[in-house]
Amino acid sequence: MSMDQQDLDPDSTTDVEDVINTEEELIKECEEMWKDMEECQNKLSLIGTETLTDSNAQLSLLIMQVKCLTAELSQWQKETPEIIPLTEDVLVTLGKEEFQKLRHDLEMVLSTIQSKNEKLKEDLEREQQWLGEQQQIMESLNVLHNELKNQVVTFSKSRISNELKTKMLNIKEYKEKLLITLGEFLEDHFPLPDVNFKKKKQNIGESTAQLITLHEILEILINRLFDVPHDPYVRISDSFWPPYVELLLRNGIALRHPEDPTRIRLEAFHQ
Hints:
Structural class: mainly alpha
Largest sheet: 3 strands, antiparallel
Strand content: under 5%
Helix content: over 70%
Oligomer: single chain
Distance between the termini: 89 Å
Shape: elongated
């Protein structure tokens, strides 16, 4: 409690009693005024008990209401409500109440501000920690960048071009070796039909077109796939030995056209 409140406390009891007495007097005066109004209304209701006809009922009712309001107005004009005097004691009491209310409100505001300050302090510490970590990362990256700059080796365009040409030649040589090895494997394990088979075929009356090896069939399919990728299908001619075609289809090496069974293409294993 402050020094001002200690000085005002001895008179606080007397001020409160004065306010209570003033309130009781006002309540009594209001009750007396209410009784007088009830009496006036009873008198007016007795005066207006005559029977009204249907033609002038509304007019008579309005006249009665005007009389009631006039009587009530006259009664209020006679009364002079007593105004509480703004003495020093009353003002001091009201000031104390306002001061207590203001103090309570300020304490609530102070508590709210302190809570927000604590939250902001925690956020600031967390952001400072994150900033320190980012600065350490940046320093490490700068060191690494400087080390890489010192290790950069300048390559001339001619050197890069020569290296690419060398790689291309190596790839072509490796490709040729693969094709030769594949051809030898196919010739050993998948030869053309023998002469007796050709004679039987001629006796049956089938086409006598020159058959090509499985190696040649694969080369045709491979060339078609890379030369015309938008239409890689090859029509099956009489030079394709049917067992070899069936072998490629059954093992998933070749695929038949979905709409034309006389055309096949190589499976795109490179994709």
